[in-house]
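Friendly challenge for the regulars: who can give me the structure tokens for this chain first? No prize, just bragging rights.
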Amino acid sequence: MQAARAKWKGRRDADPDESHYVDTRFDSGHILTGKSRRLVDVCNELGLDVTQPELLKVTMPAWHRRWVEEGQEEGWERVSVLNLRHSLSTAYVAAHAAGLGRWADEGLNVNRLIAEGAKGAWGWLENPIFTNLVEDTCPSESAALSPSKAHRQQAKRRTSTR
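First reply, four minutes later:
Bragging rights claimed.
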């Protein structure tokens, strides 16, 4: 734990030619104009569709309880896909912030990547609630921004991880 914390704190001084930590909340300001650093807001701003159908009517802790306490496999599947989406989108944001990854201007549907890459792994990926997302554009693209998420000037790049 201490070693990981030290690596995270030293990330801004890291050698750009070596692998190092990138914190998507703090190290991607140079590519963002919105104020929010919630991962879903960062992804939406960068054109990554990370719509989370698992959370439309039930929270993640509730799905987890349904899985652990009631043995509902759907709970396990939804939590697994939610965690996979979070991890995958974090990696895309980090790669983009470090200048290592780009995608088309029309955006990248992370749900489509999961559907294609994990096909057959979970029944949830075949559920119409999920499969409808694979063809749709990001629903948040047309949503109005709240004042806390309003656009601002991009920050200047300060280090190899910024």
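The longest helix spans residues 73-97. The chain is about 40% helix and 0% strand. Your move, everyone else.
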